[in-house]
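Sat 14:20. Reprocessing the chain from the morning session after the first attempt stalled halfway. Input below, unchanged.
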Amino acid sequence: MTPPTLAPIGLDELVAEAALLTRVDRKYVLSSVEAETVLAALPRDTRVLTIDGRTAFAYESHYFDTPDLLSYRLAALGRRRRFKLRTRSYVDTADAFLELKTRGARSTTVKERIEYDFDARDALSPDGLEYASEGLRPLGLTDASELELQATLATRYRRTTLLAPDGGGRATVDAALAWELADGTRMRTPGLVIIETKSGLRTGDLDRLLWRHGIRPSSISKYGTGLAAMRPDLPSNKWTRVLRRSVLPTATAA
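Finished this time. Tokens:
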């Protein structure tokens, strides 16, 4: 998915340069054909994260929700107080983290994470429940143990990370996206690519490149959109447009 002529950048250098940015995040949903066209037009001095000669890496996330999908519904209905709990795994290195993302009454987003057992990434451990309880308490929610949080959806994809020159921002390119429900039902979207840009105070180079190709930011959540695509009985609300235009036309049963 990434042009082979891009110069490499190591993880430590990427983190150091990206840490200097005041981040403004935007997500774009493209077809694989559109993504190839856009990426082929990247500035020549754009660099790509490279580890042991590889530029694309396998990611896996397991999302946890209540039996009545409280986390999903709060997001789908645009509630100011909401949360997302997941394990994020870097499959190539067998590293995993438990991440809790919350948004409070003032729409301030807080994202924290702790290291997690890679082999137990699809379940909540007692330590994981305690961690979740501490993070959810400020939202006025009951302890995680009383919420009956359970594995609801898994997502898998391959990610490439780009760094634009001269502070032009960072971007991730996610392809080969696949979802799996707790009952084993699977869906793939081989023709779909999600680009997320993370720029500083000025608009990022890749944002402007995408705009020149007529591609604008979209509202998409790998958890929310994936669950809505696989569960048409659920309210999709904020993701209805991207589902109809981009996700469902490319989806196939795995």
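The chain has one domain: 22-253.
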